[in-house]
Design brief:
The chain is α+β, with helices and mostly antiparallel strands. It contains five helices and six strands, in the order ααββββαββαα. Helix 1 packs antiparallel against helix 5.
Length: 191
């Protein structure tokens, strides 16, 4: 069995990091429209507490929010601990087999690397574990409309995306990539 990251790997920073690009991007977003169009806009009640409800580790699954090559992404709500009641994105590995450990290796690498990156443009890892025979990675949940939807809507009308918004978003993405590529372990070893 692979070595799972410990809880120490996922501790939150004392203060959330800030970024000028993040402030610009947040100011440029159509906040009212995005809040009403996001996934949570359609969720008026807390997650179900019936016996049929699905739990993944210490999280109650609220909804399926996407699928990818490695598995499925769920919106979950923390059931216990200091984050009780908070939302998280749960990546559940669905294709892991004992014979093919490449998907698990990729998920473990993702968890280990993200655990050492502290930047507002990179989601923080909250938890990693195994539940119901499947490995999962819990990270911060970023509420809002998917970028691809914003782009499709913007380019379907004249003018496209505002240049300031694109520049702010591009700057934030570049800062996040720089943080990821320069991150180091506590002993200074590059990731």
């Amino acid at each position: 069995e692979p070595r799972l990251p410990s809880a120490v790997d996922f501790e939150s920073p004392a203060e959330p990091p800030t970024s000028p690009a993040l402030d610009i991007a947040l100011d440029a977003l159509p906040v009212e429209e995005d809040l009403n169009a996001g996934l949570l806009g359609s969720l008026s009640q807390p997650p179900p507490s019936s016996p049929e409800a699905v739990d993944v580790g210490d999280y109650r699954v609220v909804a399926s929010i996407g699928r990818g090559g490695m598995g499925e992404i769920f919106l979950g709500r923390a059931l216990t601990g200091p984050r009780q009641g908070e939302l998280a994105a749960l990546k559940v590995l669905s294709h892991y087999t004992e014979e093919d450990e490449s998907a698990l290796d990729m998920l473990l690498d993702e968890a280990r690397i993200l655990a050492h990156i502290d930047h507002p443009g990179v989601l923080r890892v909250l938890d990693f574990g195994r539940a119901h025979g499947k490995y999962f990675l819990a990270s911060e949940y970023l509420e809002g409309r998917p970028l691809v939807r914003i782009m499709i809507e913007a380019y379907s009308r004249e003018g496209g995306l505002e240049h300031g918004w694109v520049a702010a978003l591009g700057s934030l993405v570049a800062e996040g990539l720089y943080a990821a590529h320069t991150a180091r372990l506590p002993d200074g070893t590059p990731l």
